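Please check the following for our workbook:

***
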Amino acid sequence: MNDIDVIAYVAGAGLPPCLFVGAKFASKLVEEWKKPLIKVCHQIGHLEIGKLTTGVKDPIFVYLSGGNTQIIGFVEDCYRVFGETEDVPVGNCLDVVAREMKLEMPGGLQIEKLAKSGKYLEIPYIVKGMDTSYTGIATAAINLFRKGASKEDVAYSLQETCFAMLTEVTERALSHTDKKEVLLVGGVAANKRLQEMMKKMCDERGAVFFVVPEEYSGDQGVMIAWAGLLAHKIGWKPDFDDIVKPKWRIDDVKWFKT
């Protein structure tokens, strides 16, 4: 602990009971060791660890996980959301369908494996401006399975539809911001088919595609430590006093250019 300069913890977004456990543990360490305490926004942790590990400068972030689906870019004084899910995140959508098919969790990984030998069946494609929607897609995929479609065909159709939607809105965000990089982060970033589709889109637009290393794609402590260290170095603090903020949105955070 003598080598530790600062203690960081996730103050949001997330489920309140889980956030309080982390906050109380961090506070106990601070009280015992007299270290500075930094509140970190979970989503910023994903973005900043992606930047650190890939060397990107100013990308459009495609942040996909079981709890988040957002297309993000840093503009002026914060990370701004250019598009997001209107209901459940894409990772949750994959898990819901996988659970119906009695697949092991994490469901997205099993869907990816099955999709390699599937063929396309019609599934709703739902893009509303810059936003996406997945509840209807999950329901349609489940209905196909219940009517006798193979797991492989359902998995392939689900992946192709969801990832095509994400690629479309990412391309639109690139065009709107005139940025030249795309960085894929979050647990779903490990999906090779998604990476393939995003890279093809970037190549066609003259943009450079990056993906966070797989060991840093899911939730891990390193991303929170790194974001906390960045904040500590410049004396950054959030604009609220509560221990946790369960609905803390990334575009509510007045962050800084890193």
User: Anything to note?
Assistant: The helical segments are 16-33, 42-54, 90-100, 107-115, 135-146, 151-177, 192-205, 221-234. The longest strand covers residues 69-75. The two ends are 27 Å apart (CA to CA).
